[in-house]
Amino acid sequence: ARSDAGPSDGGPSPWAVTGIALAALLVLLLPALPLLWRVRTRSRRLTADGTDGDPAAAALAAWRELLDTGWDFGILPDGSLTPRKAAARIVRIGELPPEAADAAHRVAAAVEQVLYAPRPHPVTGLVTDVQRVRTALHAGASRPLRLRALLAPRSAARLRWALAARWSALRLRYADSRPVTAARRAAAALRRERQRA
């Protein structure tokens, strides 16, 4: 008697194996999401692709990267400070050596020029300056802080904020598109028309 091997043999079905493999992949990738997001963001900010060749956009992207790098290493960004004072704060708290301190100040000067000069001049070397500051912060950090900056960067909070904003916008769009909401808007418009007449 010949028996065909099939799903009724008691073994897992191909769909179950695929589902388990996808779940395992998700469990492995979820903790790496902040790391992957941070690497992608850094790459986009520090290449011409992320700024479309615009010198002002390149300076602002380098500045954002400098602030986020500091944040990853425990230096919270302070939006109330001017770029010059924010750079001085990163230098002071990060205890940067003179070469890295000069690099941070050059990035801040480029940003101030973009923000305040009538016609900002393109500045070169900002990517190198940001990398120099990042290297100095990394070298001066403890091992646990370096691991945290790599695996769970604090600046990944921006990812959570962006996702929350998108979710809120999606919910609002859905709420506005519901028939009940559309009917209420139409009724309110009719009431306004009647009051005018």
Q: What would the keywords be for this entry?
A:
about 200 residues; mainly alpha
Description:
The chain is mostly helical and 197 residues long. It has a domain at 32-153. The protein is 72% helix and 0% strand. It has helices at residues 14-29, 33-45, 55-72, 83-94, 98-116, 126-140, 143-151, 157-177, 179-196. 24% of the residues are buried. The model has no long low-confidence stretch (mean pLDDT 87). Pfam families: DUF4129 (PF13559).
> Given the structure, what is the number of helices?
9
Query: How many extended strands?
Result: 0
> What characterizes the major β-sheet?
none
What structural class do helix, strand and pairing data support?
mainly alpha
Poorly predicted ranges: none
User: In what range is the share of β-strand residues?
Assistant: under 5%
Shape: flat
pLDDT averaged residue by residue: 87
Radius of gyration: 26 Å
Order of helices and strands: HHHHHHHHH
Give the distance, in angstroms, between the N- and C-terminal Cα atoms. 90 Å
Protein name: DUF4129 domain-containing protein
Transmembrane segments: 15-37
Pfam families: DUF4129
Keywords: Membrane, Transmembrane, Transmembrane helix
